[in-house]
Amino acid sequence: MYYINLTIQIIILLSFSVFFILFINSIINSVRFKVPQVWTFPSDFRVMKKWLWKYKLSWKNLVDLWSGSWKALRFFEKEFWTKSTWYEIDFSNVIISKIIWYILWNKSKIIKWDYLKADLSDYDIVYVYWFTVLMPWIEKKLWNNCKKWTLVISNAFKMPNKKAINILLNNSWKEEIYIYKI
After folding, report:
1. What is d(CA 172, CA 139) in angstroms, rounded to the nearest whole number?
2. Phi, psi torsion values for 97, nearest 5 degrees
3. Distance from CA of residue 90 to its chain's centroid?
4. 167 three-class SS
5. Where are the alpha helices (DSSP H) in the chain?
6. Which of 167, 177, 148 shows the shortest CA–CA distance to 46?
7. 0.85 cut: is pTM over it?
8. In this predicted model, what pLDDT tens digit does every residue of 133-152 receive, in sequence order?
9. Strands 109-111 and 125-128
10. How does pLDDT run across 165-177, given as a tens digit for each residue?
11. Is the pLDDT of residue 22 over 70?
């Protein structure tokens, strides 16, 4: 009985330690990039489901650049049958998402490495959800690295120097999703 209790206590301690380290890592990344973590909300998915069908996204290669969770990839795979890749620099999001990936059998490819070093020329669709302060970096990367006619879906935040070809609105006519073509 002693060894069972000891084993349970060790498992609990290790679990707490891992989640504490992941939490601290998320805080460090928020400070490093000077923005908090943002995640795609259910209202964003409703807007995209309603309007994105007209862009014929099915069976195309999609890349998600640091949107914070696997939910956006899962949405695009389920609704549009995209072949998806996720670049995520926050280690805690990668660990948690890999666990969920194994449980749900998600077909997405999760990559932990920095998107700034990634070659994005093979993708037809780019999904981003960043704060305004980071948009100049991603705009420069996309327009220098993506192929012509790549569709860029920016959740909630505008590109500073580009004009959107469409703005998807929710039911209250609030600006939600910006669509760009390279």
Report:
1. 28
2. -70, -35
3. 11
4. strand
5. 2-33, 42-51, 71-80, 91-104, 135-145
6. 177
7. no
8. 778 888 999 999 999 999 99
9. unpaired
10. 999 887 776 768 8
11. no
